[in-house]
Specification:
It contains one helix and eleven strands. It is 6% helix and 50% strand.
Length: 127
């Protein structure tokens, strides 16, 4: 079992920045892939960015490329999503999720499918 807890959501003006954090814990502590997802009101959940130690190619959905960066602290395992130049259309509940494999991290994001999910954190971009 893995537990994931997200931090860092809030209200930000268009053009601003936020950094989301995902604390990962559990009896195994290991996973195959991890990523960030979001769900806006009335829309389906979508994969924002996913990564895996098995593949250096990090996935970003097209709408966030060049603005968002996913990273991981190798010491404590916390996963981050740095969000820059935020737009109103980025408003959503953001979730951290991990998968035990063997699905590739790109597929994890495209399918918005994972084994373990956090509770989500609200990000609102508004003036």
């Amino acid at each position: 079992q893995l537990q994931l807890v997200e931090y860092g959501g809030g209200l930000v003006r268009p053009g601003g920045s936020l950094r989301l954090s995902c604390a990962v814990s559990g009896s195994t502590g290991n996973y195959y892939a991890i990523g960030w997802f979001r769900q806006a009101p009335g829309k389906e959940r979508e994969g924002v960015s996913c990564m895996s130690d098995a593949d250096p190619d990090i996935y970003y959905t097209r709408s966030v490329k060049g603005r968002f960066i996913i990273s991981r602290d190798s010491l404590n395992g916390t996963v981050y999503l740095q969000m820059n130049n935020l737009k109103p259309e980025d408003t959503a509940v953001y979730y951290c999720a991990a998968d035990m494999g063997p699905v590739a991290h790109q597929a994890m994001c495209v399918l918005a499918s994972a084994d373990y999910w956090g509770q989500g954190t609200q990000v609102t971009v508004s003036s």
